[in-house]
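Supplementary Methods, section 5.1.

A reviewer requested that the exact input to the structure prediction be made available. We therefore reproduce it here, unchanged from the version used in the analyses.
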Amino acid sequence: MNSPESFGWLSSSFGGARSKSIDLMSAIIAAKSETELLAAVSNAAGYSGFERILIGTQWVASKGERCFQVLSGYPLEWQTTYARRDYMARDPTVKHCQARTSSLVWSEDQFQQADAMELLEEARGYGLGHGMSIPIHEATGVKSMVSFVRDQPICKNPLEANELVKAGEVIAHLAHFSFRRMNTPHAHRVLPKRLTSSEVSALRWVAAGKTSWEASRIMNIAEATVVFHLNNAMKKLDVVNRPQAIAAAFRLGLLE
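The structure derived from this sequence is encoded token-by-token as follows.
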């Protein structure tokens, strides 16, 4: 199994990792079917040390009805058991992603507090005992939950775990936009304003895992200027954070 350091394809120097990261992320955005999307996201997750992924999206249709769509790489037998036993009603990862926007690294405490240890123990039997879930909430009311799962614990080193989450957030937002495009075309938005070359450049470096300070050194400008360009890009892309900005930029072909 790959270690958390395998996220280096996303967070290492842009020059060395650019080809692999661009290919993996572009494949997610370019997916034309759910089968292609599942394969693309699973491939990216595999480089990050995860064996299984799940994407769940909900939205409100034109007549007000609530719609759900799930794309799962989990074993079919587990999917059947999960539905039959109505585990969704007790699953703390689902509740978290419904109500919050912060990324969640799974822990036993979460399942114990939700009285869902039976769920966790059974999931472990299918190699699904450890993971992280990324919630994505849009102003339109569209929400997604993207989970990355494996049978081994996520590293306890806070710095490595943080890098793992940051890279997972980028993949999750790409997956969200691509899956949403397939299922909720009415929610797709058009870029209202053109991004400047500096805004695109700043996004490229952030997509490569660079901080604002690191990008400022590379671009030979002040860190505050990088933040200014990124904030302008987010406004133009109508998103609220950097992972969403990266996903939106890829979707529009700006980072290919």
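The longest strand covers residues 52-60. These observations are discussed further in the main text.
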